[in-house]
Amino acid sequence: MKFLRTSERSAGEVICALSFLALGAFVVLDGLQYPVMADGIVGPGLMPLVWGASLAAVAVVLVVNALRGASVMDDLPPPVDGENLSIADFAEDDTEAAGKPTTVAGILILMGLSVVLAPAVGLIPMLGVLVFVCVFAFEREGFLTAALMAIGSMAAAWALFVWLFEVPVPVGSVWQAMGF
Amino acid sequence: MDSFYAIMGGFSSALTFWNIVYCAFGVTLGTVIGLLPGLGSSTGVALLLPLTLGLDPLAAMILLAGIYYGAQYGGTISSVLVATPGEASSVPTVLDGYKLARQGRGGAALAVAAIASFLAGTISIVFLSVLLVPLAQIALKFGPPETFALMLFGIISVVGLASGDRFKGFAMAATGVLISTIGIDAMTGTARFTFGFTELLNGFDFLYVVIGLFAINEVLKAVGTGQPEPLRTRFRDMIVTREDMRRSAMPIFRGGLLGFFFGIIPGAGATLASFFSYDIERRIARKKGIMLGTGRIEGVAGPEAANNSSVNGSFIPTLALGIPGSATTAILLGGFLLFGIQPGPLLVREQPSLVWGLVASFYVGNVLLLILNLPLAPVFALMLRFRYCFLYPGILVVSILGAYSLENDLFGIWIVIGSAALGLGLTSYGYPAAPLILGLVLGRPLETSLVQTSSMGTGSLLFFFERPIAVVLLALSLASVIVPPLMAHLDRQRKARSDQALARPSR
């Protein structure tokens, strides 16, 4: 399990907390256009108002905690044996750093590209490209291994989703124009 | 006696050929998912849920629940052999399990874990069968005010118990509730926060967020982190001595009971159950002059019994009250809703074959897992040699196609990508994902019950105070907000005083 450096954590904590503050404030302000009471009962504006305001209030505490660096009990080193453990050491959603930044960014960009190009090239071929790039470029496995992985993934995806579950996956206008 | 006949009826539903096949498939897949680091039961259920929508609801739930408790077994294998828990609830098992494996007793540790899980699962299923009906009958007295108060209590207790920082948990839960308000308001038909996107009129399907937040987020966290080499274990190492069983008996019993009651509490879940069980065993062992953490079988038996038992326990609030006990049951709750089934007090009465069939399938699954794990744990262990770099591209493909297949629309994949990116950022800074899912799933019914309550009170929310159960639940919600920080504060003060007392003589 990797842990973020304290300086990175502090900046990130502040950004996260400010984002929640902005979201809460936006929901409250934008939610004002919806009535809090309608026809004598609770209207569509009450939930956004109450939860948005609550989020904003909690976010203020988070911002203060982040600025004071007080909220990061996770900065403690991980336990090494069965002694001196606390419940927080086993929290369900443990604080973990992301994987390699370039790989993470690459995967997200490739996923986005798959959606953008799916109507033209087809969703399954684009996912084949995604698999190939992940294995060949990010994981530095051989060309043949990556190609086999990509072909295998496309075949399995086609068998499972198109053949078995009959999902109408976009086939791609390019292939249709070429008569496939 | 009614429960006895009901569970027998459940067995007749669960023991059909195809339901046994789905159960066997679910527990086997769950074991594989649980043992592979980077995957967990919530990821597995999130990935498989879209694929089960074409099945009969009972078969789908048997399969998904099988993945859930199968993953608890699987998590043990990687904890013992690689010191890398596949599930957070298997973390305490690493402490003694891995040391046992290094001493050449990994097979015995895995066998005891399998037996402990089976016995504790049996204990918890008996409790589940007995408590489900009375709890549902109490809950039948619930009207909209009580339902609202119960849901609020569920959300707040999950925030209070499941994560280290309650403020972060609350921020995520509130975000979940706010996301649930996107789309057409069911009461007045007002379109809220749609920003002109027609795709948003029907609101956010929680499954998109689940796939992004759990399945893809886990991939993004795990890429490039590497994996330790697993220790080998063989069939002949799976032999458990009489001494092992004698030392494990009481930890299994204690863990089974503890796990079940932790499972019932929304938000406490398997992770806290296994940790508390380990802590109790550590204290008991210390009194006998034994140090846990040095490779003791008690340190494996107790937590394993607790985490398996808590999984069954967590189905009580999910089925009887419609309040999920854990992140995975939150996803399963959403699954019920996708099938048009509303978990809650009426479920036991209206869908007895579904509820009792599911409960009976837990027992069938436990037997199947014991049969699978005792002889086949070394075979499953071979999968730990499968490299993650070949695994995660497959997870991405299934996630994206699974998301697309929900509404046959590419827009949903954008929600998945957005959830994954945001989730990665937030979970990296300790923001827990489970409260967001819970807020998202419960947000709409929470608002509906609030509107109905205001209608009952002719526009006044003071009507809550005319309903004693609602008042008690609202008071409990308030206590859940106030008591934990107060206790933490008192604990810090007590620690500070004891530190000062320790420091004084040394001066």
TrEMBL record, chain A:
Q: Which residues cross the membrane?
A: 12-29, 49-67, 107-138, 144-165
Determine if Cytoplasm is one of this entry's keywords. no
Q: Which domain of life is it from?
A: Bacteria
Is this entry keyworded Transmembrane helix? yes
Which InterPro entries does the entry link to? DUF1468
Keywords, ordered alphabetically: Membrane, Transmembrane, Transmembrane helix
- The residue range of the signal peptide is none
Domain DUF1468, residue spans: 15-170
Protein's UniProt name: Tripartite tricarboxylate transporter TctB family protein
State the species of origin. Ancylobacter mangrovi
Automatic annotation (TrEMBL), chain B:
Q: Where is the DUF112 domain?
A: 20-438
Q: Could you tell me the keywords of this UniProt record? A: Membrane, Transmembrane, Transmembrane helix
Q: What parts of the sequence cross the membrane? A: 15-36, 48-71, 108-135, 147-164, 170-188, 200-220, 252-278, 319-341, 353-376, 388-406, 412-434, 471-490
Q: Does the keyword GTP-binding apply?
A: no
The keyword Transmembrane belongs to this UniProt entry's keyword annotation? yes
State the InterPro entries in the record: DUF112_TM (IPR002823)
- PANTHER family registered for this protein in UniProt: TRICARBOXYLIC TRANSPORT PROTEIN
Q: What is this protein called?
A: Tripartite tricarboxylate transporter permease
Q: Which organism is it from?
A: Ancylobacter mangrovi
